[in-house]
Amino acid sequence: MTLTIVKNATCTFCGCVCDDIELHADEIRIVETKRACSLGESWFKNHTAEHLYPDALIDGHPATVDDAVEAAADYLLNANMPLVYGMSNITCEAQREAVALAELIGGVVDSHTSL
Ligand code: SF4
User: From the alpha carbon of 17, which atom of ligand 1 is closest?
Assistant: First the structure.
């Protein structure tokens, strides 16, 4: 089995954004994470290329991404107090889009750290 080695990979799990991680991966999963802490190691090793879940769900039922985006837009437009929540493990660019969405729909933003 051939392993792909990626040097200086960035971990975005906790916010420290360690950028000196060395990853070893086969075709499906990361099998070694040099210099990652236990949280980062778990995060990397549990994200695989396997297709374990449907691309999207609507009310718990498998759906296409396009249909799910339509449903999400309907939910947001009809919400009295829209909340854009989460944003951990996503890029700055994605966070910027989330904030723009909240502004567009008159909503508020919160992250998982409020828990
Ligand atoms: S390796 Fe550990 S400390 Fe570094 S960003 Fe990932 S979770 Fe945080």
Answer: 5
The residue extents of the domains of the chain are 4-45, 56-114
Predicted pLDDT of residue 97: 95
Segment 98-112, tens digit of pLDDT: 999 999 999 999 988
CA–CA separation, 20 and 10 (whole Å): 7
Output the CA 96–ligand 1 centroid distance in Å: 22
Is 37's C-beta closer than 6 angstroms to any atom of ligand 1?
Answer: yes
- The pTM (predicted TM-score) of the whole model is 0.60
DSSP-assigned beta bridge partners for residue 98: none
Whether ligand 1 lies within 6 angstroms of the CB of 14 is answered as yes
